[in-house]
Amino acid sequence: MDTSITIVSFVFFTALVGVITWWLTRGDQHGTSAGYFLAGRTLTGGYIAGSLMLTNLSTEQLVGLNGAAYKDGICVMAWEVVAALSLVIMALFFLPRYLKSGIATIPEFLETRFNERTRSITSFIFIFAYAGILLPIILYTGATGMIGILDLQNMLGLGDVPTVLGMETDWFLLWVVVWLIGIIGSIYAIFGGLRTVAVSDTLNGFGLLVGGALIVWFGLAAINDKFGFDALSNNPVTAIETLKTANPEKFNSIGGLDSSVPFSTLFTGVLLLNLFYWSTNQQIIQRTFGASSLKEGQKGVLMAGFLKILAPLILVLPGIIAYHLYHETLPMESKDLAYGKLVQQVLPTPLAGFFAAAIMGAILSSFNSALNSTATLFSLGVYQHMIRPSATENEVIRSGKWFGTIIAVTSMTVAPLLAGQDSIFGYLQKMNGLYFIPIFSVVLIGLLTKRVPAIAANIALVVGFIAIALGYFVPTLANLLAGPFREFHFLGVVFASLIVMMLIIGAIKPMNTPYEQQDSGAVDMTSWPLAWPVGIGLIVIVLAIYGYFADFSVLWTAASN
């Protein structure tokens, strides 16, 4: 009976999002590039904020970040809280310049600032990174997460069955769930366009916030020795006081030297990766290009900033709760199992289907957003720009749909093959660093200077990629990064070196005519009057959070030793 309730509620909530999304977007115009790739530039602040948040949230974060909190405590909130600072910079500095140009992709902006070769290099880098790395990993981690949370092998009665259709049950389930997620996500991304993605993201985002909050509530109730629906009478204040008293070392925002996010890295690699992710990563910021106005875009981005400040409640606190409850039985090397165990132990069975649907929404959001961005980059950056410059709007859109379909099928085929790989999350982060840092340095120089030439940007893209690859994969250099010179600091050094190199080239061989950005007139550029006050308020809140939880004695002790 419990299994039936879980399955029915999961299917119901997942289908409900699909039906509501169809109803809200049934009249959308997808016959033009702007309509299909940029939602007709009609997105308002709420949709932008919801889509930004859920595109970012995934099983990797729910499992991985809570696992990191299980080991290191609250200091890992840096990945969420520091993101609020990046979103402020995006809203006040990057977004006005992007919308003024009327662009649909980051490579398109780089062409207007530098040249066609810069656009081509960045387009291919993004497409390769999304299609070859990001999409298969989203599908694989999402499928394994769903199988674990729903306990599908036992739920479907396959626990004692060695093979299904000649395949091992684990392998069979992985293939089935990967293709299920891929097909549903492809329908949103390929046939619906950006607005469909944004609307479904917002609806799923609401479900995920509710589901994540429920896990925290029932987890705190477990600390008060309340389980099941008795937890509804929980007193969270008492539970948090118990948690802090029993585990004070987990509530220090200043990470130790051996933590995954040492405090010093907040000012180097962590900040740079956050800035790229929230201001330059096509997969994330494409929905801001679809804003109906600068005012709505700034509202959405800053609203997402406030949500990122609250995100540690569902992405960090459960990990600390799990440590309090299970540290005697769950070894530290199994920290990534902490969130799943907490969910299975404290969530009442009738709510399991709803939470699984919320997790499914997060997975779908990450997948369909990355797929939509990949199709956009190909259609506008490769097909229209390089293959058929004279293509009609319908041909451009059709090329995106066909390319998206090919990439989706390829990703669904490759994803199950990742099973058995070691440190897949570490591999993803390394791959991200390869293109995050070079592209961000070029975008920043493009925005802040007027005479640095295209040759400087093109060299920086290639040199940056090669330098980071050598640092990661050459054993001698990799061993250095495993010591005191952390990978995050290494990324900071590469970034600074690329900036200096481009400025030197610009001083030696400046452009004859300084770059002047032109207003495309595509978007109303009236700024939100509250943008600066809200942005400053967010910065103050972030500093206050770090100050409240900071214990600098950890750093002093480490320095004295």
Structure characterization notes:
With 561 residues, the chain is mainly alpha-helical. The chain is 73% helix and 1% strand. The chain has helices at 2-25, 33-37, 45-56, 59-72, 78-101, 106-113, 116-150, 152-155, 169-223, 236-246, 269-279, 282-289, 294-310, 312-315, 317-326, 338-346, 352-387, 393-414, 424-448, 454-473, 475-481, 487-508, 531-549, 553-560; strands at 163-164, 167-168. A two-stranded antiparallel sheet has the order 1-2. The mean pLDDT is 80.
SSE topology sketch:
Elements: H1 2-25, H2 33-37, H3 45-56, H4 59-72, H5 78-101, H6 106-113, H7 116-150, H8 152-155, E1 163-164, E2 167-168, H9 169-223, H10 236-246, H11 269-279, H12 282-289, H13 294-310, H14 312-315, H15 317-326, H16 338-346, H17 352-387, H18 393-414, H19 424-448, H20 454-473, H21 475-481, H22 487-508, H23 531-549, H24 553-560
Antiparallel strand pairs: 1-2
**Low-pLDDT residue spans:** none
What's the count of strands? 2
The coarse silhouette is: globular
Secondary structural class: mainly alpha
SS summary, helix count: 24
Element pattern in H and E: HHHHHHHHEEHHHHHHHHHHHHHHHH
> How much helicity do the residues have?
over 70%
End-to-end C-alpha gap = 59 Å
Cα Rg? 23 Å
If strands are numbered along the chain, what order do they take across the biggest sheet?
A: 1-2
Percentage beta strand: under 5%
State the major sheet: 2 strands, antiparallel
| pLDDT averaged residue by residue | 80
